[in-house]
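Example 4.3 (complexes with small molecules)
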Amino acid sequence: MVHKTKDIHHLPPDDTPSGWVDPSELSTIGSRAHHDRVTLFDWTVVGAGFTGLAAARRLAELNPNDTVALIDAKPVGWGASGRNSGFIIDLPHKFDLDSDDADRLSAIMRLNSQAITDLEGHVKATGIECGWSPVGKLQGAVRERGTGKMRTFVKALEKIGQPYTKLDRAQVAQIIGTDYYAGAIHTPGCVLMNPVRLTRGLARSLPKNVTLFDGCPVVRFERESRGFGLTLRSRGTTLEISTSSVLMCTNAFTPEFGLLKNRIVPVITFASMTRPLSDSEMEAYGGQLDWGLTPADPGGTTLRMTQDRRLLVRNQYDYAGHYGVQDRSLEGVRQKHRGAFDKRYPQLKKVPFDSTWGGVCGLSRNHVSYFGEIESDVWNSSCHNGVGVARGTISGRLLAEAASGQSSPMLQDMFAVSNTPSLNPPDPFLGLGVRARLKLAAWESKEEI
Ligand SMILES: Cc1cc2nc3c(=O)[nH]c(=O)nc-3n(C[C@H](O)[C@H](O)[C@H](O)COP(=O)(O)OP(=O)(O)OC[C@H]3O[C@@H](n4cnc5c(N)ncnc54)[C@H](O)[C@@H]3O)c2cc1C
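Answer. The structure with flavin-adenine dinucleotide bound is encoded below.
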C-alpha cells in the first residue's frame, strides 16, 4: 500500500543538463505554483518524460470533461527523456533480444511501432521542430563479441520477419566516416530526433484540459479518505493538489513514492557531444550527416552524427543511488568518451566536446518492465531498461487507456510483455553488487567500447 503519508527524500538532481540545446532554453513551460491552496484535479500524472507526456495527453483525449495535472520536478526536457541519444527504436532491443519467443518479440515490435506512429502524428500535426528523421539505424560491431551479438540480432529479425541490410566494413565507413567497425546491420524503422525539442514540443501542444506544472517537485504524496493529496514545491511556496487517480510516470524515481520499493536499479549512463564540425573538419571526417549507430553489444558505444554536424558518443554506466553523479565525476567520463572518440576518429582529435552529461534510467535485475495498477487508483509504468522513448510513449498512452477502463489487443500486448521487477538486495549490497556487475560488463565489452 501507499504509505498514508510519504515524504519524498530524493528529488531529481540539479545536474549538468544535456548538450541538445543551449541550457537557457530549458526554462519551465507550465503554470507557476505561487499559491497555498488546494486545487482539485480528476487525474494527476507525475513525471513529464515520454511516459508522462503520453499518459497526460491520452487521459485528456479520453476524458475531455475531466481535468488532468501533469507535474515534473524539473523543466520539461531536463530529465532522462531530454538527455538520451534520440533514437526512437521500433525493434526489440538490448535484453529483449535474449528472448526466443517470436510472439513476445512481435508484440514488443507492434507496441514500439505504434509509439513511433503516435509521435510522428503529433510532430506533423503540431509542427514540432525536433529534427524528426526516419533514417533507421545501424547496429554496429567492432570485434568478435560484437559480431556474435549481431548474429543474435539477425536471428531475432528473421524470426519476426523484419527487413535488414548487412553492411561490411567499407560500407559502414562510407556512412559514418570511420573503418573502426567490422560491420553493421541497418534496419529501417528507427527514427532519430533531438529529445529536448521533441519533449518540449509535446508539452507545449498538450490538450487544453491538461495543466502542466514543471519545475515543481512533488515533496509529499499521501492517500486521503477519498483519493490522494500531493504537495508540490515551487520557489519556496507550496501547492496542494487533491486528485482521484494518480499515474506515476517517474521511472527510476518511483520507489521514492513508496512504490516498487527495492525493485528498481537506478543506473546512470553518459553522453558527450562535439560542437558542429567546420567545413574542413567535415572533409576530414568523410562520412554522411544524420545517422545513428547503436552497439550490437549492449555494453558498447552509441554513436550519432546529427543533422547540424555534431558527433555524439554514449557509453559507460554507473550505479546512481541518489539519481545523479557529482559534476567532478563527469571529467573522468569525458576523458573516457574522448578515448572512444579518438579511436574512431583520429582525424578529428582536435574537435572538442561541447558538453558531457549523465542521465538516470530505471533498470530491473530480471530485465522486465512494470506496467499496471500498482495500488488501487495508482498506475505505474517503469523500468524501460534504457530504451524508454518508444516504450515509455506507448506505456504512457496505454496506462491512460487502462486507467480509463478501456481494453484492446494493444493493452493485451503490453500486459503480456510486462512483469514484476525482481527484488533487490538492500543497500549497500545493491550498490556494491551493481557496480561490480557493471565493471565486469565493461571489461567484457572493452573492445566494443
Ligand atoms: C545518455 C542516455 C541515452 C539514452 N538513449 C536512449 C535512446 O537513444 N533511445 C531510448 O529509447 N532511450 C534512451 N535512453 C533511455 C531513455 O531516456 C529513458 O528510458 C526514458 O527517458 C524513460 O522515460 P520516462 O518518461 O519513463 O522517464 P524519465 O524521462 O526519467 O521521466 C521521469 C520524470 O519524473 C520526474 N520526477 C521524478 N521525481 C519527481 C518528483 N518527486 N516530483 C516531480 N517529478 C518527478 C523526473 O524529473 C523526470 O522528468 C537513454 C538514456 C540516457 C541517460
